[in-house]
Amino acid sequence: MISKLVAASAAIALLGVTAAQAQTRNTARSSLRLVQAQCPGMPAGPCAPGISFTGGTAQITRVKEPRAVSNTQFGRINLNGVFPLPASTLTAQVSGTQIYGSDPDADCPLAGTQVTGLFGTSTMTCIPQGPTARCRGKLFFTAPTAPQCSDVLRTIADITVEVYDSASVGDPAGLIAVPGMAILGRTPDCDSGGAGCP
Question: Which end of the chain is more exposed for a tag (fewer CB within 10 A), N or C?
Fold first, then answer.
């Protein structure tokens, strides 16, 4: 599944609205469900088997105009039912392919290029809720848009979100969550002729 985040930095003319309209305009939003990160092995299993959670999401919001040059927040992330209780924080990293469009005044060095790699991060604060914790944080671009690129349409595709134990960022052994689907398996009811029965 490809998720896209469009950040048209301060390009009011591209949107065909005034600055006042742009400030109050609703933003597009997309959510990625987070599941326990699975690592290959014999047998395959969770990358960080000592940490579990019941659910989570990364919510990505289109950057608002016309403040995109200075407004580096682009979403929120949370994990619920984290067990055992984390020491304090978790760290999220967001990667993808940034595709820069054409530049009307030809002063943006990134115009017409693609850049792949890390572009966002979050420090997720964990709040105990009984024996588990809820960990949440805001997603921020790792760097603000350069002023000379503020009129260039930027599309981010192939987005990947990774949540780590803060002591093991980048280490597969500390990878807790990634986008995905959790499909629950059930034992067939063979007494009533359920599917999968002999």
Answer: C
In order, the DSSP letters of 24-85 are HS---EEEEEEEE-EE-SSS-EESSTT-B-SEEEEEEEPPPSS-TTT--EEEEEEEEEEBSP
Cα separation, 34 vs 177, in Å, equals 6
pTM listed for this prediction: 0.75
The verdict on residue 191 lying in a domain is: no
Q: Which helix (H) or strand (E) holds 111?
A: none
Determine, yes or no, domain membership for 197.
Answer: no
The answer to the question of residue 23 being in a domain is no
Share of the chain above pLDDT 90, in %: 52
Is residue 61 in a domain? yes
104 preceded by a cis bond (ω within 30 of 0): no
